[in-house]
Amino acid sequence: MGRLFGTDGIRGIANADLSTERADAIGRAAVRVLAPLRRGRFAVGRDPRISGDLLEAALTAGICSAGADVLHLGVLPTPAVAYLARILEVHAGIVISASHNPV
Predict the structure, then answer these.
(1) N or C: less crowded end of the chain, CB within 10 Å?
(2) Is the pLDDT confidence value at 50 over 70?
């Protein structure tokens, strides 16, 4: 596996480079970094790819295990998640997407 974090976010092959364990750890880390002193709220959206359900469940588990809440936004484009994160006043909006891949 190469570098996981890049300028366009976190990249990796679902259930290989980007495993459920890693998605869980990313969720826990997000809470520690973005909402360390109070109960956090995170909005999670995704694209319709099959791997989205698996990664969303693992990411959500990590966020919740660190003591924060998750608002599941469902399948939405990235700009919609950014907009809703602001309107809903959450600590962060997270998008699970492989928009750079054709399928």
Answers:
(1) C
(2) yes
Choice among 19, 51, 97, 99 that is catalytic = 99
Domains annotated on the chain, with CATH: 5-96 (3.40.120.10)
The tokens describing 53, both together, are 């359900």
List Cβ neighbours of 92 (8 Å cut-off, separation of 6 or more): 30, 34, 42, 43, 85
- Predicted confidence (pLDDT) per residue in 61-78, tens digit: 999 999 999 999 999 999
**Residue 18 forms beta bridges with which residues?**
14
Give burial (CB, 10 Å; 0-12/13-18/19+) of 19. middle
Whether the predicted pLDDT of 42 surpasses 60: yes
Residue 94 identity (one-letter amino acid): I
Q: Is the pLDDT of residue 81 over 70?
A: yes
Residue appearing with tokens 């495993």: 19
**What is this structure's pTM?**
0.88
Tell me if residue 99 is catalytic: yes
